[in-house]
Amino acid sequence: KDSVTLSWSSGRHQARVWHFPFRLEILCENKVIVTFNAKGKLWFEALQDPPSSVGADLCLHGFRNVYGLPEHSDDLQLRDTRDGEPYRLYNLDVFAYDLHSHLGLYGSVPLLVAHKPDRTLGVFWLNASETFVNVHSQTGFKTKKNGRKVRPRTDVRWMSESGVIDCTVLLGPNPQQLFRQFAQLTGFQALPPLFALGYHQSRWNYDDEADVEAVDAGFDHHGIPYDVIWLDIEHTDGKRYFTWDPVCFPEPTRLQRRLEQKKRKLVVINDPHIKVDPDWSLYCEARDGGHFVKDREGQIYRGTCWPGDSSYLDFSSPETRSWYSRCFSLDKYKGSTSSLHVWNDMNEPSVFNGPEQTMPKDAVHSGGWEHRDLHNLYGFYQHKATVEGLITRSGGSERPFVLSRSFFAGSQKFGAIWTGDNVASWEYLKISLPMLLSLSLAGIAFCGADVGGFFQDPEPELLVRWYQAAALQPFFRGHSAKMMKRREPWLFGEEVTAAIRTAIQQRYCLLLYWYTLFHQAHTAGLPPLRPLWVEFPGEHNTFTVDHQYMIGGALLVCPVTEPGVQEVEVLLPGSGEIWYNVHSAAAYRGGRTLSLPVTLNTVPVFQRGGSVICRSEGHFSCTADLHLVSLQGVAAGELYLDDFHSFRYRDAKSFCLRRFDMRSGWLAAGGEGMFDCDTVVQSVTVLGVKTKPSAVTVHVPGEELQHYHNFSLKLRVTTDWEIRIS
C-alpha cells in the first residue's frame, strides 16, 4: 500500500520506493544500504521555469569513511562539516590556495565514494552549477537504554544552484567494480602517448628559441632524461593564442623539428580568452561567427585576462567547438607541426575583473543557457575541443596530449589534469598526495602537481623530495613562475643534480609499468594511483592513510614530505603479505609499521610479494627486465605494448598484452594482440625463493629447450615462452 519494491540480481538487490513521506531505499540481501531523501531534504525551487535550486539528501548506512569530491586541498578522507563549511564545487582560479580548505578550486567531480570492509559504493550528483555538499558521519555505538547496536552511517546533503536532480548510486561492491561503473558512466581514461608519461620541463616563461635549445642541451649534458619542454603565454605575439612572438620565436617550426630529431615534443599554452583586437583575423572570425559568450544584454561579454580586454569563447556550443578545433590544423596554426601539443590554462574560466575572478553567472551561452547552469563544464568543453582539434590534425591517427587546469566528471577522456598554482613549501608537497589520490578515485587518473611549487623558491632539499615524489605519480612536470629563480635540475650543485637525476631515471625505468597501468585505466577504469584501502579493502588501519599509496597493485610508496628526515614510518598492510624493498631487496612481513632509515637519495618503495613488474634500463629502450617477487611460489603480472603513439591499438587491434604467471617453478608468458615489436626480456630478477636459483631452462613452442646458467636472456616479449627456474 505504501511502497513499491523492484528487484534484480535474482532478488539480491532491491529498490523500495515509499509514497509518503517520499523516500527511496536501496537494499542488498534485505539490508538497507542507501536511503534517498532519508531526512526529507529533497528540494527544488519551482518559482522559475525551468526550476532553479535543487537539493537532496542520502543516508549511507554502515559507512563511516567517505572520500572524493575533488578538487580541494584537504585530506583524502572527507571531514564532517557540522562544525565548518560544506564542501564547495565551483571551479575558480585560486592562486596559492589555502590548505585544508573546503573551498572550491580549479575543477569539480561531484562523486562521493564510501567504503567499509565489505563494500564500496559511490554517489554521483550530475550537476554543473555551483554545488555545496554537507557530510555528517556517525560512528557505530550501543544505546545506553537497551544496549541496542546502532550502525555507523554517513548523511550526505547535496545543494546545487540550478539544474535538475540527476543522482546515480554506484553499488560496487568492491573498489575495482566501482571504478569500472563510474568509467562506464562518464568515460574511461584516455590512453596517453608514451612520451606524456615521461618528464616534462616547463617555466613561465622560457625567453626565446635560444633559451629553449640551451635548456634542452642542458638535459643532455647532465645526463638527465626528459621528453617534453613547455612554453607559457610569453611565446605568443601579444598574448594572441595560435601565434608566435616574431622576435623571440621567429622560427617555431625549426625549433620543433630540432626537438623531434631527439624524439622530444613541444607543448604550448592556449587559453579560452581571446584578445579584443579588430585587426586580428582570428578575433574577427570568432566575433563574426557568433563564437563568444554574451552578456545579459545580448552583447559580446568582455572581461580582463592576460591580454587585457578579452572575450571568451562559448565552448558549450558544438559549432564553436568545431571552429576552435579547426584552428589547430597545420595550415591554419602557422608555425605548428604534428609534434606540437597543447596546454589549456585559465579555463575555469578566469576573469581578472569578474566576481570571484570568474565569469558572471548571468552571462549567456548558446541556447540561452545562463553561465550559472554550466559553469563547472566550461573547462571540460575547451579540453574536449582541443583534443578533437589535435586528433583531426593527424587525420584521426595520432593520440594527442592535452593538459587542462579546469575539469569536470569525464575529463579523463581527454587527457591530463594538474593541481594548479601551488607554492614551494613542505606543506604543499604533503597536501599534493591526498589531492592526487582524491582525483584518482574520481576517475581523473592522469594527474600531477607542479614539481617544486609554482610560486616561491624551493630550498634544495624540498626540490629533491618533490622530484622523488612526483616521479612516483602519474603526471610528472616541473613548473615555476617567471618571477622565481630558474630551477633547471642542474642549478643547485652536484649533490642535488645527482639526486634529481636518479629520481627521473627511476621514473624511466618504470615507464613500461606505468604504461601498462594506463592501459588498465583505459580499459577497466583502474587508477594507477590508489589509496591503500583499494588494494586492502578489509584493513581498517588503511582507511585514513594518505601519506603513502599504491602504484597499481604491485608497488607501495611512501614519499618523504618533511625536512631533515632520517627515518620514516611505513605501514606495510596485509598480514599474509611479504614486501620487498626495491633498493635493498630486504623482505618484510606485512601487517606492521616499519621504521625505515632514509637519506636524501632514497625514498621508500616496496614491491609486493606475488607480483611481476617489467622495468627497462635507462631512458627507455627495447629491453625489459622482469622483476619477479614470489609469494609461496606464485607470482603474476602484465605488460602492455603498442606503438606508443597512434590509435592502431584500437582501430587495428595492433597491441600486445602479455601475462606473466609463475607456478611450481615455471614462469610462463602468454597473452593476446597482434602487435609485433623488437622488445626483448633480457634478464629475470627473482626474489622470495628459499634457495638462490642457479639455472634457467627456456621453452619456446616449436623450438628446442635452451639452458642458461645465468639470468641474462634475450626473449622476444611478443612470443609465447616458458622459463623453468631451478
UniProtKB/TrEMBL annotation:
Domain Glycoside hydrolase family 31 N-terminal: 5-133
Membrane recorded as keyword: no
Protein name: Glucosidase alpha, neutral C
GO biological process, one term: carbohydrate metabolic process
Keywords of this entry: Glycosidase, Hydrolase
Residue ranges of domain Glycoside hydrolase family 31 TIM barrel in the record: 190-517
Molecular function per GO: alpha-1,4-glucosidase activity; carbohydrate binding
Domain of life: Eukaryota
Pfam families hit by this protein: Gal_mutarotas_2, Glyco_hydro_31_2nd, Glyco_hydro_31_3rd
Protein source organism: Amphiprion percula (Orange clownfish)
